[in-house]
Amino acid sequence: MLLAVGLFFFIRASVKDRTEQAQLIAREPEESLVKRLQQYFDQRAYRVAAVDATTGQITFQGFVRPSWFLAIFLSLLAACGIVCLSLVLSILYPTFTKAFLSLVVLAPAAGMFYWKGAGRNEQVYLKVETLPESNRGRQSLITVTAHRDELAQMQKTLGLEASPESVQ
After folding, report:
1. Is residue 59 located within the same domain as residue 132?
2. 98 in any annotated domain
3. pLDDT for 6-26, tens place per residue?
4. Across the chain, where does the E strand assignment appear?
């Protein structure tokens, strides 16, 4: 029963919002960095949704598609979990074995739940500021709020480093 509860919460967590804020440092001036970030988000199918001139914040918006692999994987996990629970229940109540095993037809519901909940519009909030010149040359500080996977991909693709004062 504990495994069934764990599986339920694992499937439910597959659609959980994982938005984080991070501060990243780039070793280039603010003007060229903003152009590079715009190109990066264009390639990732995001578009500029809003620009706040007073705070210097740019909002990008894009649709994040659900993963076929994860939908199938969650359905298979649910099927395995239901079969295991059915076997345990059939030991306790042998006359209902067929009824318990027939519950496996509910397994695709886990994939459908993920598919409906994971496909959504995501927003990325971005603010670029110039840092005072140091011994490392001109640097820019990027404060970005986005999904944690998007943050990791952006940091890797653009070669950005985490700021020591990074907010999580």
Report:
1. yes
2. yes
3. 888 888 888 787 888 988 888
4. 19-26, 47-52, 57-64, 120-130, 140-147, 161-162
Per-residue pLDDT, 135: 58
Residue found by looking up tokens 């007073």 in the block: 54
Domain that holds residue 46: 18-65+122-162
Residue 76: Cβ-neighbour burial (10 angstroms; 0-12, 13-18, 19+):
middle
| CATH classification of the domain holding 148 | 3.30.160
Same domain, 61 and 126: yes
3-state secondary structure of 135: coil
Q: Which residues pair with 125 in a beta bridge?
A: 59, 145
Question: What do you get for the CA distance between the two ends of the chain, in Å?
Answer: 35
Confidence check: pLDDT of 165 > 70: no
Per-residue pLDDT tens for 33-59? 888 888 888 888 889 888 888 888 889
26 and 160 Cβ atoms separated by less than 8 Å: yes
